[in-house]
Design brief:
23% strand; globular; 5-stranded antiparallel beta sheet; 3-stranded antiparallel beta sheet; single chain; alpha+beta
Length: 264
């Protein structure tokens, strides 16, 4: 598979995206979303699976819905996936680092304190355990790179001793719970950054015993080049203690009825 073939693959809609896209205009309130899910065949929805929905008032709705990947990190140290489009905005947490890269279009990233509109070429590094949500529209292409904290610590042991913003972020995100939630890099027009991310995605398709290690090595070089180019222009939010994740669909619904979280 070459780059053009990869882009065409990423443009294709999977069944869950088609489902949400077809019903997006009807979802004006969280209760509409609940009614819609209850009306569907549970096994069909379950087969698409990573956001776990627990509706304590209706035993029919115990489903697995997946805007990211079927099993989170699984046995991998790093994974690349395309963000599912048109999915309702879920607040969630996870125990790995995440890179969000806007390959095409835009997306909206939200934490408890901030909403950030990301445009084409923007790249965000999100710290583990941050309660956040991401929304991608029907024509947006957002690549998500999931990186275990163990891999960050092993691969970037030298970088963690650096004195730049990226090194500070990686180091403090691992050892400090109240550090900044994310870093934002504006890389629009940077073909090298774009090509590196697509090359990692192409390696993801190999899915063999070497892919994880190869992508990890590619990431090491990627972070160094990213820091070299953008260490003076990277955006970082004001440090503040994190808010507890409400694991909710925005806007919030009544407490105790519906809880959303990333599975994995």
């Amino acid at each position: 598979m070459n780059e053009d073939m990869l882009i065409r693959y990423l443009e294709q809609y999977d069944p869950m995206e088609l489902f949400y896209h077809a019903h997006s205009t009807k979802l004006k309130h969280p209760s509409d979303f609940l009614d819609l899910l209850v009306s569907q065949d549970p096994e069909t929805l379950r087969s698409s699976s990573c956001v776990l929905l627990e509706y304590t008032g209706d035993s029919r709705l115990r489903l697995l819905l997946n805007p990211y990947c079927p099993d989170g990190m699984g046995q991998r140290n790093v994974r690349l996936v395309r963000l599912c489009r048109c999915v309702p905005v879920f607040a969630h947490t996870h125990n790995y680092f995440e890179i969000l890269y806007v390959l095409r279009g835009s997306c909206r990233h939200r934490t408890a304190r901030q909403v950030c509109q990301m445009e084409e070429g923007d790249l965000m590094l999100v710290s583990p355990s941050v309660c956040h949500s991401v929304y991608a529209g029907s024509h947006d292409l957002i690549i998500s790179i999931l990186i275990s904290s163990d891999l960050i610590e092993i691969l970037f042991s030298a970088a963690l001793r650096g004195r730049d913003s990226v090194s500070d972020f990686l180091r403090n995100s691992i050892f400090q719970k109240d550090y900044a939630s994310w870093l934002l890099f504006h890389t629009a027009g940077d073909e090298e950054i774009r090509r590196q991310i697509l090359d990692m995605y192409l390696e993801e398709f190999q899915a063999d015993e070497y892919a994880d290690r190869i992508i990890a090595s590619m990431l090491s070089v990627f972070f160094i080049k990213l820091t070299r180019k953008y260490k003076r222009s990277v955006e970082i939010p004001v440090s503040a203690p994190p808010s507890p994740c409400r694991n909710r669909l925005y806007p919030p619904i009544s407490a105790g009825k519906l809880r959303y979280r990333l599975f994995g």
